[in-house]
């Protein structure tokens, strides 16, 4: 079997209507598959004005606004018209990227038609309830996720630390890695622009702490703000530059009244903004990989991050940054204080992170997933499938 023989049906709850790291990775994957000559068809909710154009053929599935987070869409079914489209497309493998209604229905459809099905894991959904006062629901969410992933032939995590967690959670027998790459034309130290930073009210000699990402509570905004408060109490000279937008922006601006908010940035503008801070602070525990962490490393920045899946596979503690137990604001502040006060240590850690980031290229990581696709298709054709009872 060759890669050009692949016919991939991709199901995801968000392909291009809201921009995030997960759907950008999926679009890059589709682009790479098409470049190899494979056939791909994407099934996802759509809106009239998406965040960016989709890569490849996109088929809309019915959805409703997600309660309390209307910017996201919740798929509600696979209608007969879409099932007919899938039948005409004749996939030989199904890829599901989100464990909601669409994903569950796609897995059921694949199993009914004896098609191999794989899942990519992009977010630690089981951690979300704690940010909404529902931590007691985490075991229930884990049980639902386990049922979903065990019905797949294989699952793929974006980092070894996340893959190990999935194994410990007994999510599937076959857990592989589909990592993330970096666009080196965008994320590079060469895009550092202190004159641009000065237009945001930050002087060139002031140590600047960056936040990059969607402004939503599950990104650890409360821990970020509390840590900055601790630095202020210690009278550590610093400024904060927030790169991104989202529903929690107004709250975050009230919590960080002296921070510079530059809003959503993309492409070269994002590369300039990231390279123009002095360090990245990423306290989130919900990421399975941490695209922003890798982007900051490629820009030559030290990273202070929560010791969590994703970051543990990227940041070498004490070498390219600092890993801190989640929620420990004083320890986060200690790490940030070091990089604010010690310019040589900041430069050394940034150089180390840049060297680590050079291991990640999009074509390389996507080819590894394509190789796994072909292995699983061959196994299915040979009648080799892991029974659900074999999942540890």
Count the domains: 2
**CA-based shape:** elongated
Largest sheet: 7 strands, parallel
Strand fraction? 15-25%
* CATH domain class of the largest domain: Alpha Beta
Number of strands: 15
As residue ranges, the low-confidence spans are none
The largest sheet has its strands arranged as 3-2-1-6-7-8-9
H/E element string? EHEEEEHEHEHEHEHEHEHEHEHEHEHHH
Distinct helical segment count:
14
Please characterize this protein's 3D structure.
This protein is α/β, with parallel strands linked by helices. It folds into 2 domains: 3-181 and 361-390, 3-Layer(aba) Sandwich (Rossmann fold); 189-357, Rossmann fold, CATH 3.40.50.2000. 39% of the residues lie in helices and 17% in strands. The protein contains 14 helices and 15 strands. The chain has a 7-stranded parallel beta sheet with strand order 3-2-1-6-7-8-9, sandwiched between helices. It has a 6-stranded parallel beta sheet with strand order 12-11-10-13-14-15, with helices on both faces. Strands 4-5 form a two-stranded antiparallel sheet. The chain is elongated and about 65 Å long. The two termini are 30 Å apart. The model has no long low-confidence stretch (mean pLDDT 91).
